[in-house]
Amino acid sequence: MIPAKRHELAENIGKMVGNHLLTSEDVRQALTQQAFQVELQQLLDQRLAAILARDLGPVASLVPERFHSYFTLGIMAALVGGFLSPELIDQKIRSYLAEKGEDLAGCLLDEAVQEKSARAGPC
């Protein structure tokens, strides 16, 4: 039979055990014993191994939806950074801008000289 005041009974039993049967020193000594620490370490190792063995799917599926854009940018930056040094990235950007700048200057000159409909080229 479960008493109607089982929560109160449990609380009173807990207080009695805490006040009269176990002291904080008893708990401290139990926690610092080598056998307890070894058992705790084994339990943690088992639980962690079980978590790591689970197939969690792709990393992107673990990222909350609202952070997907940041996650994608981070992945792209890591991939690009992993293949190209910052100096090489800078060199490629400067080279691209110089090339496109020349194309644009040529287009503007062509516009000044020719009609837009007769113009051919990258513009």
Task: State the helix count.
Answer: 5
Round the mean pLDDT to the nearest integer and report it: 74
Count of structural domains: 2
Number of strands: 0
Succession of helices and strands: HHHHH
Give the low-pLDDT segments.
Answer: none
Q: What is the overall shape?
A: elongated
Radius of gyration: 35 Å
Helix content: over 70%
Q: How far is the N terminus from the C terminus?
A: 89 Å
Largest sheet: none
Percent strand equals under 5%
Which secondary-structure class do the elements indicate?
A: mainly alpha
Q: Would you give an account of this structure?
A:
- The chain is mainly alpha-helical.
- The chain has helices at residues 6-21, 24-32, 34-53, 68-83, 86-113.
- It folds into two domains: 6-53, no CATH class; 67-118.
- It has five helices and no strands.
Using brief descriptors, characterize the structure shown:
single chain, 123 residues, mainly alpha, 2 domains, 5 helices, elongated
Present the secondary structure layout.
Elements: H1 6-21, H2 24-32, H3 34-53, H4 68-83, H5 86-113
Short description:
With 123 residues, the chain is an all-alpha fold.
